[in-house]
Write a structure and sequence with these properties.
Chain lengths: 288, 147, 348, 348
Amino acid sequence: MASAPAMDKPRPDIYTPRPARVEELKAESRDVRTLRLAFEDPREQQGFSFAPGQFVELSVPGEGEATFCLASCPREQGYLECSVKRVGQVTEAIHMLEPGSRVGVRGPYGNSFPVKAMKGRNLWFVAGGIGLAALRSLILEVLGRREEFGALTVLYGARSEADLVYRQDLEDWQGRPGVNVVLTLDPGGEGEGWGGRVGFVPAVLEELAPETRDTTVVTCGPPVMIRYTLAALDRMGFDPQQVITTLEMKMKCGLGLCGRCNVGPLYVCKDGPVFTYAQIKGFVEQIF
Amino acid sequence: MNRPEQKEKRLKIIGFLCNWCSYAGADLAGVSRLQYPAEIRIIRVPCSGRINPLLVLKCFQEGADGVLVSGCHPGDCHYQEGNLYARRRMLLLRSLLGYFGIDERRFHMSWVSASEGRKWAEVVSRLVADVRAADAESRSGQGVSAW
Amino acid sequence: MVASGGSPGGRGPGGSPGAGTRAQEALRTSAAGLLAEGKVEAVIGYGLSPAGDVVPRFVRRSQDAAGLLWNDRCTYNLVGYLTDRDLLAGLAGPEGAAGADTAQSPRFAVTVKGCDLKSLVVLLAESQVRREALTVIGLPCGGVVDQEGRLLGKCVACPEEVRNLRTEPGESPANGPPAGEPAAARRLVDLVMGDPVPGDRIAASAPLQAEPFQDVAEIEGMPRAGRRAFWDAHFSRCLRCYACRNVCPLCYCKECVFDQHNPRWVSPAPGIPSNRAFHLIRAYHLAGRCVDCGECERACPVGIPLRLINRKVAQVVKESFGFEAGTSPEARAPIVDFASGDPEEFIE
Amino acid sequence: MKVLTRKALEALLAARVEEWELIAPVEIDGKSYFHALNSGSRLGEVTDASAAPLLTVNPVKEFFFPRRQELYVQGPEGITSLDSEPQRPRLLLFARPCDARGLGVLDRVFLGEVPDASYAARREATTIVGLHCLEPDSRCFCSAVGGGPFGTEGMDMALTPLDESRFAAEALTEKGEALLAALGAAAGKAGGAPGLPDAGEAERRLVESLRAKAEAAVSRDLEIPSPEALAARFESDYWIEASRSCLACGVCSYLCPTCHCFDIVDEGYLRLRCWDTCSADTFTRTAAGENHHKHKHTRYRQRVFHKFGWFKENYGTVSCVGCGRCTRHCPVKIDIAEVVNGVGASHG
């Protein structure tokens, strides 16, 4: 007969988050806030490390759980940051939080940007809207080891000036040697006094015509932007191995089990979210 | 089930009150210092016609012991006819609740005007008594749970 | 075996083999003609799958009209496909889709039984289909059967003039045409296939209910706790697969309340409390609209008696608001309406 | 191989009903369901179920991967875990070969890279007594996906009905041996000699002939396309055609022994995991409204590619055991075998 169930075995609870506190909430744009978190248990915080590109599952008690990329610098040990755009129940609840509020964190999950392989190369970060959040931790990591990389360009676009996130960071990055920050707004989104470019990100990218030689492009943004950006990079002759994107697909469990982020044989949450264009080329129609 | 009788359970009863009549009626009851049970929690709405039955069901699903919808007497609706829509909707809802074996005593509807402070106190007293009776039955194992 | 009833896929609409051949032939000829003349982009009807099942069949070429089927296993109510815009656009193809929502918008033909017709009436009343873009092919019916060959419950009480399409919803036999003759001026049915079918099988089936809502009354006769136990036992099996909702010809909302995330009206996780709320709301949203076509109950994989819920709603709507669903393309659903004399005994 | 009498089986069940949790098929309104029996009240129905030729409506997965699994409560004091592992040993009686094999597919997911402790505990606590299929129906295609009506994969003990009062019993694992010993002891207490008699030549021959007959009855063929063939049809209009009548409900996934997609939702401060389905457009829709499976044909394609292509690529086996439930219970009878066969057949 069946053995009695083992009751004394520790249960690794794969769905249970660890409690964390909101340390700071910063408004980035009209509907984006950056949440700075620290685990309640200082040892937990000490033990928490992640690589740029990874994500967490954030829980707000009574509201639900949702997926957010880690936007802070992986070198910062004392806290983690996520930038949250208000679009649904969980994100609305996050926007209502205050310093001291309790949230739950699972993770970090997923793979990360191939920072090693980027060494010595010129890097282009091409982002749209809240998509810059997914590249921020990478940019901060790269800036922290600035000498290991070639020229850096950040091409960032949003619908309007009010939708641009990380204004302070962008200013700071622009001031660094060998870093070029190009801002653009969607046509019609530019207000009076806008000093940057006007045009959709993929179009501006083609205008800027980056050299393909020794260059890696990392891109993240709304699906339609990524789709056109990839097509533009194709036209410019980029090697799909040197084009890297991070997918913001619907995810839930973060463990490769629940099924919704399945694309081909891959699970975005487990095998991604970072992919080279070469890896996903066959599924572009399905993803974007 | 056969739990020892605790102190009387504090009931959770939600009242959806039309802003133009019942809400003012409840206010009047308060100002007039009329006594009525405190178990009701009031949600002010622009019109009883605003009460989507989903709201009532949401209350029950979230653990309410009883729900009240209260609007203007027929003919007195601020928007002419909102309460007449509500009347139909709540009739059907009440029938279905009963059909599924939910205790109808947990769901009341009333017409209370702005000047009927006394009626408001009576409506709430009857409602709370009804819900309490249903709840007692449920806890004794004789009746059915609220939802 | 699943398709056990005689000839592949079933017997004729009268219940006897061969009786429906003429109707089926007429259907194939008419459909082929409509398609060949370019009058419709597609005919939505019944066909036979390679495995021997009756399935919905979407015929786009006249040479495929020979695959259309009409027999006593054609249970589906196909009217629901008329509100699936994606599907219609696909059937119309690139040229047809371009003309959508214009005067030249694509036309479709749909085959209906007398009972299905009522759901079409509701869709018309709610402006969900355009009559002028539709060719309605009526199929005289002697009752349809389930997979085990049993007459469907809804067929037992189906009047002759309805199943033979002699009257249309809203007409009574009194003001309708004499037996054996179709209505002179038809609002809904453009073509009737074959002759009226005898109702031997219906006559031979269980006797009619003594009262129109006897089944509902039986549930209501139970004590409250008994009713609760009865329904909870059924709801405990509900998988929340939403087959009942998705198969319903009248559940066409683009964004269903059960799919909304913010607010969540009902938890998507199955459980008796959430399932009870789901079933109550599903039936409620069909108040005065449900025409008792029975598709929800047929589709339910776990045998929840959904018609028994719908019929309770129909009873309230009829007895309290004097309304019957699917009788007039001009009618307003009773739940978005009122009468000054509506009952209010329950109101304090 | 031993011979087990129904009497001995019934005697053991009756004796252990308090000690074990019994999961067995019972009849509800004319349909058969696997059901957890925590008391002896329905024991009488259980052994009769072995005679039912048809599969249960539900597969056994819900007893390992529950429809609704309450994970924890997030209270002010922190998180309190809720999901309790089985408190008693469990006996799963009369699992068909396809159902038992289905658990093997789920094991690959839930006991894989990230093991699910609660699933593991449920598996460990359960002894699975399989029942060979004597009358597979026209929907069954277990043999075409690597199983068979007399398969034993995933079972601890296999039973073959010999006649109305006896089974041939074979222990396949240690758990099975232990159960066999308990059954032997029960047979002794029930008045016979202790221990189960070995099957004789006649019984063995009978089992073999039943096996040959059953295997011949599973005639449905399924040609699983190669990864290349599948990939070549990814963008094909075939998926629009194949899924045209699909209602996008969850019947096929929820009744599938191997479908394992789920959602994580909150009911107030309660967090739970519940089944979800790739048929629903809500499955992949983000809060911002993006959806990489807006259309039902790409969702249906996802289902087929996942089961017959990608799952195999990842786990070495297709995630289909050929039980036929998805077709049997599909409200519009979409036949997955037909669809899969069509991938290789019709290039157009």
